Amino acid sequence: INKDITPNKDDMPQLTRREKEFYNTLLQIEIDAVNKLEPKIAKHYRSLKRRVDGIIGTFIENELQNTSTTTKQLPGEYPFTAEQLLPAEAENEIVQILDTAYVGMGLTVWKTIKESGMLGELPVEEKLIQSRMSNIAILSGQQVHHTTLKAIEKALAIGREQGYSIQQLTYGVTADRFP
């Protein structure tokens, strides 16, 4: 069990041996779910990074090749938007990843609690658990997508204000501590 996320023993109420085992079982379910989820989220963001690298790479190449003033991109003006870099489909993808993880973990926890008998009879149906966990996944996915989109929009706004080229926007400007 990961000691970084396990509460301090002094902060926990005194538990019976059975309660401690049950607590550890539930904690392990959570740890296992996170361990399964992390690579899926990492893969999702690697895919988005490749997409952004491709879009921006094309524009950097054009920026380097175009030397005439009629075709050269003005500093701080970008031929792409945050929404083009992070499309709406990315939100659906992160929601699906989270939905699979949340529903799986929720059902596993529910079944573990039910099978333990520690809470008596649980008159909750699996469909309700699935529905509630899916709703949480939708809200979480929307929040993750919105936060990521806002970070991209902020970087573009700073780039526009500072007159950064696409290369500077992409690779940063050390003197300005950007990004």
What do these coordinates show?
The chain has 179 residues and is mainly alpha-helical. It is built from five helices and no strands. It is elongated, with a radius of gyration of 24 Å. The model has no long low-confidence stretch (mean pLDDT 86).
Which structural class best describes the helix and strand composition? mainly alpha
Query: What is the end-to-end distance?
Result: 36 Å
Mean pLDDT: 86
What's the main sheet like? Answer: none
- Number of DSSP strand runs: 0
Sum up the structure in keywords.
179 residues; 70% helix; 5 helices; mainly alpha; 0% strand; elongated; single chain
Summarize, please:
This protein has 179 residues and is an all-alpha fold. The chain has helices at 17-65, 82-85, 88-116, 126-162, 166-171.
SSE layout and pairings?
Blueprint lengths: L16 H49 L16 H4 L2 H29 L9 H37 L3 H6 L8
